[in-house]
Amino acid sequence: MFELGKVQSLIIVKELDFGVYLGETHNASIDDRVLLPKKQVPQGSRIGDAIEVFLYKDSRDRMIATTNRPKLCVGEVGKLRVSQVTKIGAFLDWGLEKDVLLPYKEQTAKVREGDEVLAAIYVDKSSRLAATMKVYRYLRRGSNYRKDDIVHGTVYEIREDMGAFVAVEDQFSALIPRRELYSEIRVGDAVTARVSDVKADGKLDLCVREKAYLQIEKDAQKLVEMMEASGGVLPFTDKAAPEVIWSKTGMSKNEFKRAVGNLLKNGKIVIGTNQISMQP
Q1: Which of 37, 139, 248, 273 has the most CB atoms in a 10 Å sphere around its CB?
Q2: Alpha-carbon dihedral of residues 145, 94, 189, 150, nearest 10 degrees?
Q3: What is the pLDDT along the chain (280 residues), one digit of tens a residue?
Q4: 133: left (phi over 0), alpha (psi -120 to 50) or beta
Q5: Is the pTM of this model over 0.85?
């Protein structure tokens, strides 16, 4: 049986001026053949030879074979570049003459021409090949990562009620829980994170911040740099509203207080009524 969107080894069963017909067996019937255009036929090929081809559909929606290999086959996940944005969706360059469609309903964020997006290839309800940015069900579980390992991945979807979904190494399922989103993260961002938990089903929970004792040092240094850039002063203290602290520093109020406490303990700052100053 022909598998749309997959690479298959098929046999040349008939030669024509415009190409060759391929089948799964030497005596494949007319209905069980697929055309490999002449320009795709390897030089010296003859009837009975087996050829590895990729099966897709041409502009007339007919099954056709090619010896060219796409960047992704059905069920595979990877990064593809947006070649064009149209009224029906975006077209992605996947290495074949005919680009693959990424419908609007399969986009997790707005894409523009030239963007590189993480996508998977699937067969749609019309039996055509298409791309989706909703790659969750195509990602693997059961990686060899352990708690506290540092991983790299791509954000492919964000849900306000859950957090940011990440494809680690563009192949393993992971989540940065909402409570761990300390800075603005967008679909398509490359992130480096620490594994905070490995679920029973193999999924990973990630944290974009270090362990507390390491993060305090980083946050304290960040505050020092902010003060150095603004005349040695922060125009607010840990009494400020959490929203103010977050908008100015990207830290929660508790994280800000811990960093301020670190600087105070080391004699680097003076806390006033409405501001924090560097120690002269």
Answers
A1: 139
A2: 20
A3: 899 999 999 999 999 999 999 999 998 888 899 999 999 899 989 999 999 999 998 878 889 999 999 999 999 999 999 999 999 999 999 999 889 999 999 999 999 999 999 999 999 998 999 999 999 999 998 889 998 898 999 999 999 889 999 999 999 999 999 887 766 788 999 988 889 899 998 999 998 865 555 667 888 888 999 999 989 999 999 888 888 888 888 777 777 888 888 888 888 988 988 899 988 7
A4: alpha
A5: no
- Would the CATH topology of 140-207 be identical to that of 212-278? no
Between strands 19-23 and 63-66, the pairing is: unpaired
The answer as to CATH 3.40.30.10 being correct for domain 212-278 is no
Residue 69 and residue 54 in contact, taking contact as beta carbons nearer than 8 Å: yes
The matching CATH number, chosen from 2.40.50.140, 3.30.420.40, 1.20.1250.20, 3.40.50.300, for 7-66 is 2.40.50.140
- The β-bridge relationship of strands 172-177 and 204-207 is parallel
What does 107-131 look like in DSSP terms, one character per residue? -SS---TT-EEEEEEEE-TTS-EEE
Dig out the tokens for 54 from the structure.
């990729």
Nearest alpha carbon to residue 78 among 86, 87, 69: 69
Identify the CA nearest to 131 among candidates 165, 94, 163, 96.
94
Phi, psi of 209 (to 5 degrees): -110, 160
Cα–Cα dist 219/167, whole Å: 27
Indicate the domain borders of the chain.
7-66, 77-136, 140-207, 212-278
